[in-house]
Design brief:
Blueprint (H helix, E strand, L loop, with lengths): L1 H16 L10 E8 L6 E8 L4 E9 L3 H19 L5 H15 L6 E9 L4 E7 L5 E4 L2 E4 L17 E5 L5 E5 L16 H9 L6 H16 L8 E8 L4
Antiparallel strand pairs: 1-10, 2-3, 3-4, 4-5, 5-8, 6-7, 6-9, 9-10
Helix pairs in contact: 1-2, 2-3
């Protein structure tokens, strides 16, 4: 009973931190869904306006489960939001967050993060990927993965992290996710791997963001069948409508 209570509290912490709505950013749309596993993890996603010209997108995954993960996730989000409003460079922001997590966080925990800053009018996104899964870019029927290299945050003083830039185009879809999406097991133990994820996305050209989100989760639920869900599954979609 005590364990159930802690799991419920962890769920409440996680839900209180995740956004219920997204900011209105002319020319862009967003959609997301997070399905916590019974052993709640520390998945995080957010979209936030930085100034008149820029907005940020982030997805992150804490290494642990339960209340420690939920609290570490809340700490990570607070630090990232504070640093993001001080500095536009995703590299600089994540380096600062890493330093602060080493000072304030638990020594045996870490978090993977993808953080991008989009310049609204030019559609240019600068991003850094700290050990997180590579996002997918849907451009018509083509599916590619974003680059960037880096270590997860909260482990090492001398953080290795690259900063990359991509110019988005009208009708592009950016698919950010946590590894719970690609750790889904079928009842016979087979994993829903990256190749299957890409194949699914290739069939989704022309869908709205919400339709794309629902299609992905429906397919994963079908694949999983009656098998247990071991990790949080979190998906954040960014769509480019064109500049207004």
């Amino acid at each position: 009973e005590r364990l159930e209570r802690e799991l419920e509290l962890a769920r409440q912490v996680q839900q209180s931190v995740l956004p219920r709505t997204f900011p209105a950013v002319p020319g862009y749309g967003f959609s997301a869904r997070s399905e916590p596993a019974r052993q709640v993890g520390g998945d995080l996603f957010d979209v936030f306006v930085l100034d008149d010209a820029h907005f940020g997108v982030v997805i992150a995954d804490v290494s642990d489960k339960g209340m420690p993960a939920a609290l570490y996730m809340a700490l990570t989000r607070s630090l990232l939001l504070a640093e993001a409003h001080r500095e536009l460079s995703p590299h600089a922001v994540l380096v600062s967050v890493n330093r602060l997590l080493l000072e304030l966080g638990e020594p045996d925990m870490f978090v993977t993060v993808f953080y991008g800053v989009v310049e609204r009018l030019t559609q240019r996104m600068t991003y850094a990927r700290a050990g997180h899964d590579r996002p997918f870019l849907l451009r018509g029927p083509e599916v590619t993965t974003l680059g960037g290299e880096g270590n997860m945050l909260g482990l090492l003083d001398n953080l290795f992290l690259t900063e990359e830039t991509i110019v988005l185009r009208p009708d592009d879809r950016l698919v950010l996710y946590t590894d719970g999406m690609t750790d889904v097991e079928a009842p016979d133990g087979r994993l829903f791997d990256l190749d299957q994820f890409q194949s699914l996305l290739r069939c989704c050209d022309g869908l709205t963001l919400d339709e794309l989100r629902d299609t992905i989760f429906t397919d994963l639920a079908t694949y999983q069948g009656e098998a247990d869900q071991f990790d949080d599954m979190t998906l954040l979609l960014l769509g480019v409508d064109g500049v207004e």
